[in-house]
Amino acid sequence: MTASTETGREPGRARVDRWRTKAEVLAEVRRSPGLTRVELARRLGLSSASVTETVARLREGGWLCEHRAPVQGRGRPTTTLEPAPDGPRVVAVDVRHEDWRVGLAGLDGQVSGIVTARHDRDPQRVATALAAAVGDIAAGHRTVAVGLAAPAPISDDGLVRATELAWDAVDLGPVTAALDERCPDPVPLLVGNDATLAGVAEARTGAAAGAGTAVYLTVEVGLGGALLLDGLPHLGAHGQAGEYGHLPFGDPARPCSCGATGCWGPEVDGRALARRLGDPPPGDPRSYALGVLERAAGGDAAAVHAVCGVAAALARGVAGLVAVHDPDVVVLGGLARGLRAAPGFDEAYRRGLMAFRRDDPVPVRDAVHGDDGTLHGAAALALDHATSAEGLAESCEP
Amino acid sequence: MTASTETGREPGRARVDRWRTKAEVLAEVRRSPGLTRVELARRLGLSSASVTETVARLREGGWLCEHRAPVQGRGRPTTTLEPAPDGPRVVAVDVRHEDWRVGLAGLDGQVSGIVTARHDRDPQRVATALAAAVGDIAAGHRTVAVGLAAPAPISDDGLVRATELAWDAVDLGPVTAALDERCPDPVPLLVGNDATLAGVAEARTGAAAGAGTAVYLTVEVGLGGALLLDGLPHLGAHGQAGEYGHLPFGDPARPCSCGATGCWGPEVDGRALARRLGDPPPGDPRSYALGVLERAAGGDAAAVHAVCGVAAALARGVAGLVAVHDPDVVVLGGLARGLRAAPGFDEAYRRGLMAFRRDDPVPVRDAVHGDDGTLHGAAALALDHATSAEGLAESCEP
DNA sequence: GCTATATCCTCGTGGTCCGAGCATAATCAG
DNA sequence: CTGATTATGCTCGGACCACGAGGATATAGC
Predict the structure, then answer these.
(1) Which residues form the HTH marR-type domain (chains A, B) (predicted)?
(2) What is the pTM of this model?
């Protein structure tokens, strides 16, 4: 991503350390907009003198703004702190199988001005078109970072290996080149996996907001997800963690396209519904599943029965993951939302839990971000970097 | 553990911040004993002036010592840095089902002077006896922390709920009282789960040393384990993460004592071996399993067949966990060590992996700490605290 | 013994966080 | 309206840390 000196760091620790407290303050204000200065000092263990200094610097840089707080009683009135609405921006990108979407987000994480464009899956043309679109948006605002979601595992070198997309390795060089060329200050590009970032969005502003440990699962074709720790995804040694769909919760005799057998994913998606209904394997399992869910909602007995069985298979696995991860909450996205609503889910979930958990079961909730979750997650990824001590040092000091 | 002001922190950030760099230096030296000052400066991005200052302070406090480094060529000879062998100590405690063990560890993490005593499972008498033993050792050395492992989930309030031990909630108050009374400076008591801490030991100085992501699994009666991220265990929302034995990898028809069905644990321990051999459920599944493993090693065909089947059930699940966690390494402890060696493990593991992983499968290794793993982990827990910025501030400033 | 090399130490500077004290802006009481 | 009360913000000097520059130190090579 950013150029790194591989022979080790030269002294420069103080330059970043100076922004550590400011980054903490900014993070706290972003987490709790409308915080008063006194409450901020209390939470972070800062003296009022330090808050004065820190807030002044963040206001200078355009990160925070202050408003008069409604008076509560006696005493000098205080002000509330909020992320500056006209502050720095990040560009969020979501590259999907058949199109890509680009939007702009402020410090509050809301993505606006989303534009969509279809693509033809040619890696080079996609990179070129993205470079133009991202460069246009970035150059038109005070852009401090770009976050990009891709439907593929992300390797360390910042390239995208999208085997399912028949892309070998997408070189994002054109995008970084466009950013370097069209923006006065360097703009880092951060890349993440799409399902992972959808989970991040839920953990920040969605159904798992505030959770220390959250499990996000999404069913489209197969099942993917992420384990979120304090809002950050666990990526694994090679950035390939989260393949929950390949846990062997299923029938050991059934082979999976991944090469193993008994995988959970094919037991909980459109293919599983088709099997239960005696239909041939659907060409597009996702839209097939949507059809069955609709029929079940309409009262079709066979569809209800199939959905119920699949929901139970999903619930049983979710209960197992609760035992392993002990999350504050489990969030379901994609088709899993429809399955959770099906009769049989709750009962199967309860029975799959260890007995001591049944009195107070870990809540299972629907994802609140729809299709925009991934884009929100990409914005969060970029904002995380921009508002870190490193990012602040980068963008506030020449 | 330590008293906390629940109305929020008062300013005191600088007091801890001052030790942040020193804690980093100490951690780096503990990770790489024998480091030169120049190499240290390079890795941490510090100037030589800062290293001089920092090392001097840590030497003053008795945390580090320096030796002359063997001369390499021209230039002024440098010195190597090591954790001081006569530096601060921590006390490590491992409370087990029928006995407890106490030892003393230095900054290198090695536990010495281990003493063992049986107990009668009476919570109050155990706490009293522990208080005396821990107090004796702590008072005889410069003790900066105590780490305690318990065979139970650890709740946030520092009490131990050992339901399997027929203990309701063990109050460790007598231990902290003894420490307060017999040690001049306050000595914090840290508590952790035994399987979790055995995993920590492997991640620090064992088969998973240096791994960013490691999965530790141990089979005794049932199966437990931990996910280790940069050497720190993932604890979950209530400290109950790691119940890998209750993932539904097994026969959905078989009920588990936890209340769910199809759990993995009963498929990979002595009970599973007995089923496969047509024996009745063993009273002590652990020693039964050891007997079967021995018979299999001796060539008993029936035993070999049973062990092989159980090993395959273990391997299949391990492969699933590799898909989910994408670890650098999987470490097996307890009876799982013997199962890994069985014929059939490697083949089942390979077949359970997603195809793209088979060229370079995640290594599965035996735990290198034997029975002492938990005690080492308890020492690591205590040392983590003592060598953190907070711990250093606590013990070095009045 | 002299030089080249690599490292260590000292010193002054700029920066952060802090406590104390003063300044400020509201309510409340008369 | 005025002064007391209360809560908060700001200023100032002190303690401390990381840094760059430059001098000091200890070895190998010649």
Answers:
(1) 21-74
(2) 0.92
